[in-house]
Design a protein that fits this description.
This protein has 8 helices and 8 strands. It has 207 residues and is α+β, with helices and mostly antiparallel strands. The radius of gyration is 16 Å and the shape is globular. The N terminus is likely disordered.
Length: 207
Amino acid sequence: MQRRTFLAGATATLALGLGSAQALAADVSLDDVLHDPDAPEVGNPKGDLTIVAFTDYNCPFCKKAAPDLTRAVREDGNIRLVYKDWPILTQASVYGARMALAAQYQGAYERAHHALMAINGRAVSQEDMERAIEAADIDMPRLKADLEARKKDITALLARNMDQADALGLQGTPTYLIGPLLASTLDYDGFREAIAEARSRQAGDTQ
């Protein structure tokens, strides 16, 4: 069962009004969310806007939105996208997140992420997740070796993601931090509108 999303609707957003160094909680700052050195990143590393995506591989709304987010980031060309695996729905979600993060050590996080997001259903098993990743032409022996060798690092990253989600007050997946805005389930047009609004707010903050 999906936890209640923070905001509903295709274009619903909430302004955070936080500076990049402002503390969200005792041990978490917005800079921690935006610049965790171990969090997978894609897009333009020098982009003028950062999107942080908190998702779960058993969340149907995450799966529906994933292609639209990818398309919006690719077509824009000036966005840095940070992935936050936040497996809150099932134990298999945790396993999927661990596999995706282990794939990062062979430069295949994004391939693993998209393979897992492409699986239909909201109760995907660990076995189905393994098959999807293997079908994405990812080196499974190496992935399993990295799962074991990097276990502490992966566990620590997932714990930080959880702490950051809690500090932001997130209530469910998917949640997207788009510049100074928080948004929930978005379609392609919703992402574009939120991106434009985020840039407008950032420009206003610098004036």
